[in-house]
Amino acid sequence: MESLFVGQHEHSLDAKGRIVLPASFRSAFEPSGFLIKHSEGCLALMTPDRFGEIAGRMSERSQSGGPHGRAAKRSFGAGAARVLPDKQGRIAVPEELRRFAGLQRECVVIGAIDEVEIWDAGRWHEMNAQGESLLAAPESGIEAAEQA
Hints:
alpha+beta; six-stranded antiparallel β-sheet; two-stranded antiparallel sheet; 6 helices
């Protein structure tokens, strides 16, 4: 795997809708990254390679999936934005994507192994509590993944 992203970092959106990427994540997004709408109401920041993999699968499905596949591909592309970190490591989060994820001011940037997620702080704390309870449960599936 090219880039592994781990950790949790609390950051604030500035008045221009920019957020600082943690220093440990920045080199993976030089010269750019792709910001997309993600599940559970957060945003995902992907390397160009990771975004290309997903876009390729979407294109393949759209060719054989009829109108539904094409609609999904269109929505995926329309909901994505190429972002370029500035010299301070900030990326501009487009207004539509901020609205989708409910990003106001306080945010949490997390490493989600193969991508970076950007969450509204309140929503993240709720989601993280669920995730931690799953990790604590013996039937969580972590053990199954470790045995595979």
